[in-house]
Amino acid sequence: MEELLPDGWTIERVREVSGDGSAVPVPVGARLVVADEPGGDDYVLLRPDVILAFHGLCLVRHEGEWYMGHFEDDGSVICWSCYGTDFSEAVRGL
Questions:
Q1: Of 15, 35, 48, 74, which has the fewest CB atoms closer than 10 Å, so is most exposed?
Q2: What angle do CA 5, 25, 2 make, to 5 degrees?
Q3: Quick check: helix, strand or coil at residue 76?
């Protein structure tokens, strides 16, 4: 997992910076992950290579950009905010 995080980041550092000691990576698998684009009528399908869970929230990396979202009851993810490539800002945004 550590190799999937940006340089200088470990899961322990993610937990410390986010203030969530229970933060964990979760399997991407066949999980449905979408982004709710402002002004759009439909969701945009994301194909993440990393998902980090923080209680009910999550950070998702898709094509090098970090999105914030939440888990639905069925395990799918709906993202509503994109932080671009700035992982530090995304973690602090939690």
A1: 74
A2: 30
A3: coil
